[in-house]
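Hi W., the copper (II) ion complex you wanted:
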Amino acid sequence: MKLFSRLTAYALPLGILVVSGGAAFAALGHAVPWQMDLQDSATPIMDDITSFNTFLFWITTAIAFFVLVLLGIVIVRFNARANPTPSRTTHNAPLEIAWTIIPVIILVAIAVPSFRLLFLELDVPKPDLTVKATGKQWYWSYAYPDNGNFEYDSTFVAEKDLKPGQLRLLTVDNELVVPVNKIVHVLVAGADVIHSFTVPSFGIRIDAVPGRLNDTWFKATKEGTFHGQCSELCGTDHAFMPIVVRVVSESDFNTWIAQAKQKYAGAESAPQNVLAAAH
Ligand SMILES: [Cu+2]
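Structure:
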């Protein structure tokens, strides 16, 4: 009884933690301490990933609970004391058919939405804007081929240089800026080794491979600042090449483009990453 009351004492705060987890620990655009769920979604793809994740969670929970109940029945009803003369049955056709068919049905139920999501992620709709992200040791470069083809580097801001409110390990000097509610096609390449362009709130992750052009897309439906990190182990400073995407209104984006063209004008004459990637 003492054990039971102690268990309840532990379980209660844990239960509150789990129930309130969604609201208390989620944040838009970055991870937070004690976060248990996925980051809040900012794109239709991430909405689908989140609901698929919840769907899988309930399937696995139901299976785990079912197995637990079966184990409980075996322990209680079929131990040596409760059941001294065990049954010698070795075959049961209906049961064997059931435990083959039911898992197949479960797998098909998982596969259908899984493939649907995969096609949605890989099939790039007609883009409103194309940007190119090049992973380098150890920072990202962003180019805007539709808007003057300027390119600039996005480098890590060290902890000692952070301004109040800026996130440790997740802040850069020059962010990737995109308009809200527009389909953004992202071309991704690596200039030296393999990196990976990842923004959890957008549900995107794609490897940046030298000599190869990968692509992904997103349509951010919320304005704000979204943080990601290089997600392929790429060397000593792998942990220090964050990705920051700032989603702004269309008019703010046009203003930014006009300024950026001036600011990064000199960069146009610099060697293109495509060439760097081919070497
Ligand atoms: Cu990297």
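Helices lie at 2-25, 44-77, 93-122, 250-263, 273-278.

W.
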